[in-house]
Design goal:
Blueprint lengths: L1 E5 L5 H12 L3 E6 L8 H4 L2 E6 L6 H9 L7 E6 L5 H11 L6 H5 L4 H10 L7 E4 L2 H11 L3 E5 L9 E3 L2 H10 L6 E5 L4 E10 L2 E6 L1 E4 L2 H6 L6 E4 L9 H14 L4 E9 L5 E7 L7 H9 L3 H11 L11 E6 L8 E5 L1 H8 L3 E6 L17 E7 L2 H14 L1 E4 L1
Parallel strand pairs: 1-2, 1-4, 2-3
Antiparallel strand pairs: 5-8, 6-7, 6-8, 9-10, 9-13, 11-12, 12-15, 13-14, 15-18, 16-19, 17-18
Helix pairs in contact: 1-12, 3-4, 7-8
This protein binds adenosine-5'-diphosphate and magnesium ion (MG).
Length: 405
């Protein structure tokens, strides 16, 4: 069974999904813009073939190249777990006559305005929102919705070019800064705690689901470099205060007609208990969240997903054993990592509750924290008790220091 994987080796998590497909018996053909020799060994050894394309953004050229790729025929399935490639994968399916999500369906997971329209049409609470393509339209939308508003790209990711705007004056400043973004969504600002609802589905049926808590909200984490952002996989997903999110998650998947694969939804819970839709993507959450979900239940969702999409089966036994928190660290100073302080003490304190340590080594250049949430590395802690997990995560935030120079 030949399966095409778009971008099989990037980002890091995709390596394991690619391997998962091979483990479950697929012949995996990859397309990507990396040269084959630069693919991680783990991916290379599980690929039956690889096609390097000049750009993953040129859909028409790629369709032609894949069609002419004899070794990969007949293609039974096209998969993509990387946000910018989701539409390309849908186009390939349409053009090559492969079943699965088509372009119209995929657009509902990519275009934030179309997404919210479809979700709102099903009676689900979304922030008030308007599309805008000029500064004047933005101002008008903001006046109508009422300040504060959020201004963000129609198809953004990682909170890039996303701003909270509190007044007309601030909007002028933001518009001057985002001249390179052609179309934006102006939204009602929702003051709330932010969660995820993530699933693996088979033909419209949820076979695995998860809720994460973000600490703090992603937009806040992106505004202050000193913050060590956390994502927390929650053990007690049946808690009362999460009921609105669970129901919304199911309703959104139904409204958008999602069939098979991974989904990642974000939702907001206001202090008065109201639940508001954030966004949804037809792919797994990024920033190592799949690893975090694995740590929380001692399962392997990489092969679990592959089994679901290939064989329409999810045979992993799900036991929610732990809360699991990932804490991303940003070094102080610019340049190369010079010194790491506090790790020994944290390891002595928390011992086996620390599930993973993946910090940049001494001498490595710092990563751009605005471009990658993983920043200069992370720790994962886990514990059956939520408060114990949060306390450990906060200690990693305050007591672990990376210094660059
Ligand atoms: N309407 C809103 N009200 C409050 N905060 C928002 C709103 N929309 C976005 N944000 C903040 O901005 C972040 C990024 O926006 P999001 O729509 O999730 O785009 P992406 O994650 O694709 O960049 C969110 O995680 C949230 O913290
Ligand atoms: Mg988001």
């Amino acid at each position: 069974m030949n399966v095409l994987m778009v971008s099989p080796g990037y980002p890091t998590e995709i390596n394991y999904f690619t391997r998962g497909l091979a483990v479950h018996g697929a012949r995996v053909f990859g397309i990507g813009d990396q040269p084959e020799r630069e693919l991680p060994p783990l991916v290379r050894e599980h690929l039956a073939g690889y096609l390097q394309v000049p750009s993953l953004l040129d859909d028409a050229a790629i369709v032609k190249q894949v069609r002419a790729w004899k070794a990969a025929q007949p293609l039974k399935q096209v998969e993509c777990l990387w946000e910018p490639g989701v539409i390309l994968a849908a186009r390939l399916r349409e053009e090559l006559g492969v079943p699965g999500q088509d372009v119209a369906q995929a657009m509902l997971f990519r275009d934030k305005d179309a997404m919210k329209q479809a979700v709102a049409a099903a009676g689900i609470r979304t922030p008030k929102h308007q599309r805008a393509t000029s500064a004047a339209e933005c101002q008008r939308a903001a006046e109508q919705i009422g300040f504060p508003v959020i201004v963000k790209p129609i198809a953004g990711a990682g909170s890039a070019d996303t701003f909270q705007v509190n007044s007309r004056l601030e909007l002028d400043a933001v518009l001057a800064r985002s001249g390179h973004v052609h179309e934006v969504n102006v939204e009602e600002f929702i003051d709330a705690v932010e969660y995820t609802f993530d699933t693996i589905c088979i033909q419209g049926k949820i076979v695995y689901w998860n809720i994460c808590l973000y600490r703090p909200r992603p937009l806040t984490a992106r505004q202050e470099e000193w913050i060590s952002p956390q994502t927390v996989v929650l053990r007690d997903v049946e808690a009362d205060h999460l009921a609105g999110g669970r129901e919304m998650g199911r309703a959104v998947l139904k409204a958008l007609g999602f069939q098979t694969g991974f989904t990642h939804m974000e939702w907001y819970r206001k202090a008065n208990g109201e639940t508001v839709f954030g966004e949804i993507a037809a792919r797994p959450p990024g920033a190592r969240t799949v690893d975090l979900m694995n740590y929380a239940s001692d399962i392997d969702l990489y092969t679990g997903w592959a089994e679901a999409v290939l064989h329409r089966r999810f045979s992993s036994k799900l036991e929610r054993r732990y809360n699991a928190a990932i804490i991303f660290k940003r070094a102080q100073g610019a340049g190369h990592i010079r010194h790491i302080e506090g790790l020994d003490r944290l390891q002595a304190r928390f011992g086996a509750h620390i599930a993973a340590v993946e910090l940049l080594p001494i001498g490595a250049p710092r990563r751009n924290w605005l471009l990658t949430l993983v920043s200069d590395g992370f720790l994962v802690v886990r514990h059956p008790d939520l408060q114990a997990t949060l306390d450990m995560a906060d200690a990693v935030g305050t007591d672990l220091h990376l210094y660059a120079g």
